[in-house]
Amino acid sequence: MNEERVPDSQEAAPSAVHVMRRYLTVNARYNSTLAAAILCSLLTSALLSIMTQCFHLTIDHFGAVGTVMNKQTVILLLSLGLFVPSQYLQQYLGLKYSELCDRSMRDMTFATVSRIDKQTLDAQRIGDLLSRANSDLAQINGSLQNYFSVRLPQQIIGIAALIASLIISWQLTLFSLAIVPAIMLLQAIVSAPLTRFAQQWQQAAGESLSIANNLMGGFEVAKAYNMGNVLRRRYDAAVDRAAESGIHANRATILLSPLGQLLVFIPQMIICGFGVYLASIDRITSGGVMSVVILSVFIGNPIGDFGAVLSSFRTARGCAARVFELWDMPPEPEGGTERKPEGDHIVFNRVSFAYPGKPPVIEDLSFSVQRGERIALVGASGSGKSTAIKLLMALYRKQGGDISLFGHAIEDWSIDGLRACISYVGQDTYLFAGSIWDNVALGNRSATDAEIQAAIQAALLSDIDVNREIGERGLRLSGGQRQRVAIARAMLKDAPLLLLDEPTSALDTQSEALVSEALQRLMQGRTAIVIAHRLSALRHIDRIVCLQDGRAAESGTHERLMSMQGVYYRLYRSQEADYHEIGD
Ligand SMILES: Nc1ncnc2c1ncn2[C@@H]1O[C@H](COP(=O)(O)OP(=O)(O)OP(=O)(O)O)[C@@H](O)[C@H]1O
């Protein structure tokens, strides 16, 4: 088996400003919470400036007259009293903003994924999509959450502390910070490759998730073909690549941390040394030096964190490229307006369709179905049967000709309205984790218990405990039971058009008999298009449309098509089965 790689993210990493702008736009409805958090940071900054100013004056005054309780001390104590609640509020609001953003971005990602156009989805790996929606998003949220709840307030307070310190002694402040730009530049250089490493790491993580997903989804096949070791090797290769990128990223991040400590430590040493000298020549008071030392802690916080902020932003940029690519995947078109099923026909008129980069699968396809009629679409494998019904469900869009459904052109229907008219039962039924009852109830969210019970009975499921858990994808049921649950779900939906992709093809004779009976009940009084691979399975069908190379080559009853001795006849003869029941 070839080693498959998830295709690289097509987008270059967006700039930090772009990431930030998009984050703020997507979360614009929480702007008031963010504004309140910033306001509290400003209040905290103002309190800090007042406190150091008062401290400065109190120390100087105390030194001169030996009294502690003066006006400045009272203001200092009052400010101290307000400082804690204001910082608490600022952090609480910052964290609240981050949590709200996290929730809304996850919501938005889920909504995007559920609306992705089928054609776009076909080109994706599910594991990689899950990784983008989960791990990449968590990285972006983690970085920006931390920024808005901790780092941004720290920066605001740092700027206020810097101004206060410049006012006390601009010489001491500027001299102490002289080394800072050089170290910051070094940090920027060290952290530069982090975006690429983050992208590579997430890509490899997506690949490993994709492989794990393959193993879980195709567990029986993987076991039957002893694919465990092959998948394991591919998985190992992907996690090896992730580890390699992680090690490179960590090496850069680790170097940022001591550089950050230097950013705090060196200015403080300079303040102490140079401050003592300035005090000795009476250019600053001792209260002034002490205030600048205190302020340097608040100035130092954001400066010391510069490397960490840079590294988390660079990581977020790498992940943002992948998440934005997911968000920007085209949604399926919403279609036209609300319509009601009116006319009689389903009409395919000279319809053509090709999958991207491939020759046409459907070409000049024309056939029609009367209301209440049950037709079978037959044809050799790959002749375009499934594609035709996917066009009818608007999962893909025709490229030529016209399709109309119950009196309206398919593009005039709203997507939801169109799909409300259709019940689909496929070969490989997808059931959701939960009970049989839950799965049937999904067919019609407003159905009563009695209606659900009736659908369960009509689908011949009454002999099973309908409340028991059926496991992920219904794997604790037999194939025939799963199909009958799907039939009950379709019955409850009670849509006027049934699309059946040969739901009995994978069943043994006994299960097939049960499912066929349930299907007959389902088809009663409804228009149905049945895709049939095994011509022996055609029962209760009014007409057969035989496809060849994407065209309707022949149409008529079984007897008529047999008498024509054409495509259908040859197809029929090539199958080893008993055809006597066709057209019962
Ligand atoms: N998502 C897709 N992307 C690209 N090509 C596709 C896709 N789905 C189907 N095809 C190709 O389109 C052709 C028609 O496929 P389709 O499933 O419609 O045929 P079918 O008549 O239903 O076949 P079968 O009887 O084997 O189920 C095939 O050659 C298939 O490989």
Automatic annotation (TrEMBL):
MF GO annotations: ABC-type oligopeptide transporter activity; ATP binding; ATP hydrolysis activity
Membrane topology of the entry: Multi-pass membrane protein
GO cellular component, one term: plasma membrane
Localization annotation: Cell membrane
UniProtKB keywords: ATP-binding, Cell membrane, Membrane, Nucleotide-binding, Transmembrane, Transmembrane helix, Transport
Residue ranges occupied by any ABC transmembrane type-1 domain in the UniProt entry: 35-315
TM region(s), chain numbering: 30-50, 62-84, 156-186, 259-278, 284-304
Residue intervals of the ABC transporter domain: 346-574
Pfam families linked: ABC_membrane, ABC_tran
Keyword Cell membrane recorded: yes
Name used for this protein in its record: ABC transporter ATP-binding protein
